[in-house]
Design a protein that fits this description.
The complex is a heterotrimer.
Chain A: H1 2-44, E1 52-55, H2 66-81, E2 85-88, H3 95-107, E3 112-116, H4 121-127, E4 135-139, H5 143-146, E5 155-160, H6 162-176, E6 180-185, H7 190-210, E7 217-222, H8 230-241, E8 246-250, H9 255-265, E9 268-273, H10 277-284, E10 290-296, H11 298-311, E11 321-324, E12 337-338, H12 351-362, E13 381-384
Parallel strand pairs in A: 1-2, 1-3, 3-4, 4-5, 5-11, 6-7, 6-8, 7-13, 8-9, 9-10
Antiparallel strand pairs in A: 10-12
Helix pairs in contact in A: 2-11, 3-4, 6-7, 8-9
Chain B: H1 2-26, H2 34-51, H3 56-81, H4 85-104, E1 110-111, E2 116-117, H5 120-123, H6 146-163, H7 165-175, H8 177-182, H9 187-210, H10 226-236, H11 241-257, H12 269-281, H13 285-293, H14 306-313
Antiparallel strand pairs in B: 1-2
Helix pairs in contact in B: 1-6, 1-9, 1-10, 1-11, 2-3, 2-4, 2-9, 2-10, 3-4, 3-9, 6-7, 6-11, 10-11, 11-12
Chain C: H1 2-9, H2 11-37, H3 42-55
The chains are: A alpha/beta, B mainly alpha, C mainly alpha.
Chain lengths: 389, 314, 62
């Protein structure tokens, strides 16, 4: 009996080792075929020189925020151009693990790495110079995150003027006639803070123009995470039942909490990052739950940069930290921060009013403060709540 | 070698938490509160190094003491009020977690814009544990004396449990509390001491990880899993302090291996799933040991001749 | 013959064997899961998890 068991144990170990060995040899075989394929393809087109990889932030690719948008944009581009694409997830939320993922990707042969999020600034500082052949595209890594570091040539970074998008959304909402608003941020990271403070400034300026600044109130809170849950929905329920009409849900998946609460009392929601009116309508079965969205062009940026890289125009970007905002005063759809005009549902604040606003933001008539230290001074009432989580 | 260094640094808390649970288990107590003691250790080490700016030695000491006190609370409940230490431990876990969020969420420790604690190396360089063989590990700045300390602790536990009177008393209390009391051992004192020491080791685990600066603390919504992984590792190590070291290394190896999974074919959560299953199976060690030990079809007959039995086995 | 028996009956060896059996079984079951998810690349994936730790040579340009 014992002998049988011992033999079972030995067989099991043998099988396991066999698979391990089998795995490695298969890998060697597939590696060999991969290189020959690449070699053949090399002579055909230079596109396959670039292999794209993405490293996720602390979330996953289903977080409906940074990671998902970057993943989908990069994957769509890679599929369209026939480039290899893979994403890597660091084992834990630490710089060390991110550096390990980066080196993992590089050893696997990827030479274009897209990294979303401010957390990657430290990683870039640590590895960018050691791998000059690897192109690094960073999103939302600002100068504040890098400190005194000058970006080497193989790195470029994009930040967005989210405060403008927030401003537009707040301005539109108050002009539309809402007087009780709310801001539900994800976590208090610089991008979300800029959205929030811009939103407050937009509400303020619109209220001053309309003359009802004493009536307008903005509830302001951070959820502490980028997804919704019961605690956040409970807070939203309290807001909506106390008179809040519209909440700007600014933090990835946190819109679910705001939408659930809004649906019960016929409240409204403002989306973020992309045009969420469609997704929200489908998910909750209510057509005008989402009145507008404060969009920022993550996907177009990834697409444009990768297109330029493949076409050989990397020099336009190398070593720069670009702050993307409004590039055109006349055609708002070219801007990186905008409100969606295709699904416009507001009546008092029309698309023409929006175009005028964009024009004024572009030529400097209106300026929006993008500091993240403290809440901007306003004539309207802003009520700050403690973080939910 | 740099990877090896990171690998060792990350395995330190797993091994030490497992040692803590092992130590308590030998005395017959199931210290589920290890996660809470770990959290309290995080509070002590990060707060003293970031907000108070102490030297690493005192920060580590603070972590040990904090973990010990937290364990002692559970021990007092068990000894004097006969509260099951599992329940006391779990409740203290949650209390510890929320206290941690409050204390470490303040301005002094946490970078409000990044929602994680400051880098100790920048705020208080004397708070970082001294390096150990850093050049050997490819200049990995996180390799510190934490690693040899872990081995020392494991050996100390081994010696205390097997060679000292105190350890003997603990093991006796673990085998049979009533018999130990009958033999004159002070059960109450032993229980409190056991949980005190167990908590201290768990607190040390937290200190040895966070004081290397390899990870920052973020506001957590659930108790750190380190305490629970430690249970599985303790059992996988066969409840032997030295075995725990190897078991902890194995579990860490598998965890780190998860990142090499090709994400084009597999969702990375699969790696986590696999690791969880392996850890789950670790609980079966005692079961397998019993199977291996079963004499099979041989019936033990007091009058049977020993020669016959031997032949059947062979 | 007698030596072999008493060696295997020693509790330390028994525990070691049991632990190793656990680990191996765990890896096997993990492999089965990988196989169910994507049969073609299962062994490759498993090999990657177990061995890539040693395969990585990082370009040290410090």
């Amino acid at each position: 009996m014992k002998k049988k068991l011992l033999s079972v144990l030995l067989v099991a170990s043998m099988v396991a080792t066999m698979f391990v060995g089998c795995g490695s040899s298969k890998e060697a075989a597939s590696d060999a075929t991969a290189t020959t394929e690449e070699g053949a393809a090399d002579s055909a087109a230079t596109n396959s020189d670039y292999r794209i990889a993405m490293i996720t932030d602390s979330g996953d690719i289903t977080d409906m925020s940074f990671n998902q948008t970057t993943y989908e944009a990069a994957k769509a581009f890679a599929d369209k151009n026939g480039a290899d694409f893979q994403y890597y997830k660091p084992t834990e939320d630490s710089d060390d693990a991110r550096i390990a993922s980066f080196e993992n990707a590089v050893t696997d042969g990827y030479n274009v790495i897209v990294v979303p999020g401010y957390l990657f600034a430290n990683m870039i500082k640590a590895v960018a110079e050691d791998y000059p052949d690897v192109t690094i595209i960073a999103l939302d890594c600002g100068e504040g995150d890098f400190g005194d570091y000058t970006l080497p040539e193989n790195v470029c970074s994009f930040t967005y003027q989210e405060e403008l998008a927030g401003y537009m959304a707040g301005f539109a909402a108050v002009k539309e006639g809402y007087t009780k608003l709310g801001f539900l941020g994800g976590m208090a990271v610089p991008a979300v803070i800029r959205y929030g403070y811009g939103f407050v400034q937009g509400c303020n300026d619109a209220a001053v123009e309309l003359g009802n600044a004493s009536d307008v109130q903005v509830n302001y809170v951070y959820g502490g995470q980028f997804f919704g849950d019961e605690a956040i929905t409970a807070q939203m329920d309290t807001w909506y039942s106390n008179g809040t009409e519209v909440v700007f849900a600014c933090g990835g998946g946190i819109y679910t909490s705001a939408c659930e609460a809004a649906q019960k009392v016929g409240g409204k929601v403002i989306g973020v990052d992309s045009d969420q009116s469609g997704t929200i309508a489908n998910q909750y079965g209510t057509d005008d739950l989402c009145i507008t969205s404060a969009m920022k062009g993550l996907a177009p940026t990834v697409d444009a940069t990768l297109t330029d890289l493949f076409a050989g125009n990397w020099a336009n970007y190398s070593g720069k930290i670009e702050n993307l905002g409004i590039v055109s005063g006349t055609d708002p759809s070219l801007n990186y921060v905008q409100l969606p005009t295709d699904t416009w549902s507001m009546e008092n604040f029309t698309v023409d009013d929006y175009n005028t606003l964009v024009g004024q933001l572009y030529d400097g008539t209106i300026t929006v403060d993008n500091g993240t230290d403290k809440m901007p001074a306003t004539e309207i009432t802003v009520k700050e709540y403690d973080n939910i989580h | 070698m740099k990877y090896m260094g990171s690998f060792l640094v990350n395995s330190v808390p797993v091994i030490l938490c497992a040692e803590a649970i092992l130590f308590a288990y030998k005395a017959g107590l199931f210290n589920i509160g290890a996660a809470g003691q770990y959290t309290v250790g995080i509070i002590a080490s990060l707060y003293t190094s970031l907000a108070l700016g102490w030297n690493w030695f005192f920060c580590l000491l603070a972590a040990i003491v904090a973990g010990g006190i937290w364990g002692l609370i559970a021990g007092i409940f068990k000894a004097y009020f006969n509260v099951n230490e599992v329940i006391a431990g779990i409740m203290l876990n949650w209390i510890g977690l929320y206290i941690c969020n409050i204390i470490l969420g303040g301005e002094a420790c946490m970078n409000q814009s990044k929602s994680e604690t400051y880098e100790i190396a920048e705020v208080n360089p004397s708070g970082i544990l001294p390096g150990f063989m850093q050049e050997f590990f490819g200049g990995n700045q996180y390799v510190t004396i934490a690693i040899p300390l872990t081995i020392v602790v494991a050996i100390v536990i081994l010696i205390v449990l097997n060679k000292t009177t105190f350890g003997y008393e603990l093991k006796a209390t673990g085998h049979n509390k009533e018999a130990a009391k009958y033999a004159g051992m002070n059960a109450k004192r032993n229980i409190m001491f056991t949980l005190l020491i167990s908590g201290a080791i768990a607190g040390m685990a937290a200190g040895l990880l966070y004081l290397t600066g390899i990870q920052h603390f973020k506001i957590a919504s659930s108790v750190p899993g380190m305490g629970f992984t430690g249970i599985a590792v303790a059992f996988l190590g066969g409840l032997n302090p030295i075995g725990t070291i190897f078991a902890g290394l194995f579990v860490e190896y598998i965890t780190l291996g998860g990142q090499y999974l090709n994400t084009n074919y597999y969702n990375p959560q699969v790696a986590d799933l696999m690791i969880a299953i392996i850890i789950y199976l670790c609980g079966f060690v005692l079961f397998f040991k019993t199977i291996l030990n079963r004499p099979g079809k041989v019936k033990v007959n007091a009058n049977a001749e020993p020669a016959k039995t031997e032949e059947k086995e062979v | 013959m007698g030596q072999k028996e008493s060696f295997f009956k020693r509790p330390a060896v028994q525990t070691l064997l049991a632990s190793v059996l656990c680990a191996v079984l765990g890896i096997l079951i993990g492999f089965i899961i990988l196989w169910f998810m994507n049969a073609e690349h299962a062994s490759e994936g498993m090999g990657a998890i177990l061995t890539n730790f040693f395969k990585y040579r990082i370009a040290q340009r410090h």
